[in-house]
Amino acid sequence: MKMIREELIMLDNRKLMAEEWNAGCSALSWSTQDGKHLWGRNFDFNRLAQGTKVSYIPSGTEYYTCGATMERNLDRSSRCRAAYAALGTGFLMIPSVPVLYEGINERGLMGGQLYYREFAHFADKAIPGTLKIQPPYVVYHVLAQCATVAEAADLLKNKVTIMNLPLFGSVPTLHWAFSDRTGEMIVVEPDRDGLKVYRNTIGVMTNSPGYSWHRLNLLNYAGIRDLDYDVLDLESDRLNQCFSGSGAQGLPGDWSSPSRFIRLAFLKKYCVKGRDESQGVANMLHLFQSAAFPLGIVRITEQGTVTEYDKDISPYDYTVYTSIMCGESLRFYWTTYQNQQIQCVDMNHLKKGMKAVQFDLEQPPNLHLLSCPEK
After folding, report:
1. Is 25 considered catalytic here?
2. pLDDT of residue 311
3. Which residue spans traverse the membrane (predicted)?
């Protein structure tokens, strides 16, 4: 009876994880003045699945890209071995494959998955000569096998077929972004007319519609700039500016995917890059805060499947965490909604071991109380 109960608990958790892959989110690539390359994302949802942690998976890990041992449908022809170690947010609770929402590998390739509601379309039949892969496994597989965005684009276009196969009853609607030490960010979208790989993008990604729509939509905001507008002359009247920020008038301020895309695109264009990695991460967090969901502003109508093992379920979508990684230092940074202190894991230290390692993502608020200096 104990084994049956444990299997039911694990199955409930997997169903919740499948729903979590349908979260919102925003992603961004940026750089620093001294040539470091950063990629990061906001994770917007109403919970985190049990077992979600910052996870390190060593090179040489054996895994499968189709099926799962827990569902007794593992496709053993999809067996792979990781060429590179990877570090990111995800879980290691499916024995046949690690799952990452986003991450970085030891060659500096970074990327992740975002929700692509109503637009994602996956293949019912595999292209001959390609490896079958289910959508939730894409991030880890790319990081495990590719060193650059060029290799990632080639793998996704020519070497795999992303299949319309459910995992624990759900086919998550996803699209992806990857970036590397060159600074290029690619956007990968599974549309009805085939898989699109956009090269040399502006380095911003949110949710539906697709990247090409978001890119064209920027023309509606072509007048936005970082410089305040000057005196306004109206017939015989003359109005002097009495507030700052008029150059950005018309910049949308809501939390929809199109509005977040516009805000991040113009913030990336005009905001000051950090001098070095630490300042770059701090500055980039401010950009993400402009697109973050405050708890209470995005109320949801359906919470999805909630089991007795779930906790801290919110009736609102909010920015559960923000992660940023650096392609040169191989460091993974994050903050959570409750704890804005920047936490960091360095892959260079983890590579000295041969086992998977996990770190708690959620931490209680860290309030630093200063005392009066002694005279």
Report:
1. yes
2. 60
3. 82-101
